[in-house]
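INPUT
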Amino acid sequence: MASIHDVAKEAGVSVATVSKVINNYPDVSDKTRKKVSQTIKKLKYHPNVAARGLVKGRSWTVGVFVTTSFTNPFVTELLEGIKTALQNSGYDLLHLSTRFDDPTYSFVEHCLSRNVDGVVGFGIDRNDPHLEELLDSDIPTMLVDSDIQGRRAAYITTENKTGIMQAVAHLAELGHSRISFVSGELDNAVGQLRHEGYVEGMKSHKLSVNPAYVKISDYSMEGGAQAMTELLELEERPTAVVCTSDMMAIGAINVIHRSGLSVPEDISVIGFDNTYYSEIFSPALTTVNQNIRSIGSHAIETLIAMIENADFTPSVVTEPSNLVVRCTTAQLRDKSAL
Amino acid sequence: MASIHDVAKEAGVSVATVSKVINNYPDVSDKTRKKVSQTIKKLKYHPNVAARGLVKGRSWTVGVFVTTSFTNPFVTELLEGIKTALQNSGYDLLHLSTRFDDPTYSFVEHCLSRNVDGVVGFGIDRNDPHLEELLDSDIPTMLVDSDIQGRRAAYITTENKTGIMQAVAHLAELGHSRISFVSGELDNAVGQLRHEGYVEGMKSHKLSVNPAYVKISDYSMEGGAQAMTELLELEERPTAVVCTSDMMAIGAINVIHRSGLSVPEDISVIGFDNTYYSEIFSPALTTVNQNIRSIGSHAIETLIAMIENADFTPSVVTEPSNLVVRCTTAQLRDKSAL
DNA sequence: CTGAAAGCGCTTACAG
DNA sequence: CTGAAAGCGCTTACAG
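OUTPUT
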């Protein structure tokens, strides 16, 4: 690779001048600028980003730490949004590899030694010590779905509460009263808000919350299957289930089908996320849509704004959610049929 | 961030000595080594990778260029394999963002200015000018599914031909003779080999290839749906379809169902890839399994070997494939029923 | 408008 | 065993 020196020599100017034309400084004569530009083209010169970063203290890089599987559809959609926003931004996405062989491994130190300009995080437990360290580090950070803010950190999330309320309302309008809530952990903002949405939704339709109908599991298919298995063992099983992820809903539906019951005839099921799977799955899922790609894009846009303006303190952004009715919910059947 | 100078001053040694202990050089006395190590811990010092890279001419970074959507299940599984192999390797994955606003954008120049140590590529058209440039650049490159080699480039793929042959054999054994082949483009190695597998598979079962049964489309659900629509319009429609991706198979099945026919009763369908979708989809897909994650991991391992040994010329690796029989294939029905 | 020089945080011969 | 110095490829005051 040609270096700035090669260009300078070839063009008969100093490296300082070359640097100025690269960076579009105004104090260069048109003639020199033209000469240098031509030489750059001729030599196929491209600035070494690491060298530039070394002096500027930057890397034009955004760090991300994918702790879950890439096959997780939420992650996948989020990355797609991130990718889109990164396009033309001048930043590249650095996917930081964990080092499990090192017990002292620190995500933040990794970011620091890589000199990333910002970090986008998701799926991080709010008690994760890495998170606290990150917040302390003053590296600009955008969190997805974690209700945590810092001097240089903000977050973005979905209207979780109203999303679930819409789901409950839909079921109530279909005549259901024995509505179950199958959720991921409740010890974080997302879990809490969705649970609140469930409780309030039930209340506003004068429906009572049966504690046996609230099942906490994890967001996977297996989690949904496990919860559903337990629900089916109940004396009086629910006629409708609100799940907090599409994968959980799919897991639940599989269990229902395997038990000889059908969806939505016997039990209505609602998912959450509106990932690609929810449409492909058959029956197509009724689900709460969240604009995951927008969340990803917005997170990056905000992060870049934070990076480029040290005084910028972003406010929390909440993307709207809405219910998408497809084929897994139906009118409650005649009670005698139960 | 503390720099090497801070550590040197604090420990009362020269930066050269600090560098030596960081890099585990032997010519440092135990005493100094201990002293320096302690200071490093105390100051939470971590070497700046960009600075080190500048002098070493490396970046400990592998570049990747995701041109398709992250939601593509093949890509997703591949990245998961890549991620796994990168763990503990000391390399991070740099996801290069394209710059569509710049018509002169060059992937290779992007790699060069980022100084990536190697590139893993997939889904690249063999005629893509970027690819040629990449091969010329001498940046170590591992391609997935592109049968292209270079001084510093190799590829890894699946046993495509035998995979399809197994699929055809399975259908033939079920009594099918009107077997269709729905594929992505044939102008690349993968497409060609799969097509060969189809033709040979048919021949070895004494079945004739009906040109009207060969449909070329793209690997998406829409592609499969489009091809299937055309097949259903045929006077004598096929009784079985081999698709070259799971998504195509899903698209095809949806069309079959919508037309009032059923899978596998009326038409058997086989997919390719054995992605997560194929299990979740209902009916669960009979499909040709390829070890996508292994391919991803293997690609990285080979790439790192190439990076760290300039003389290493890897041979082509072909991962085995095998048919996974699930619910979308069945015995041919009585001919009179057609 | 142009360029010499210092410096970003490292590594590496080389001298001692 | 230790360290001074040059250099990796850039940018940025600063002087002219």
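end of record. The two ends of chain B are 75 Å apart (CA to CA).
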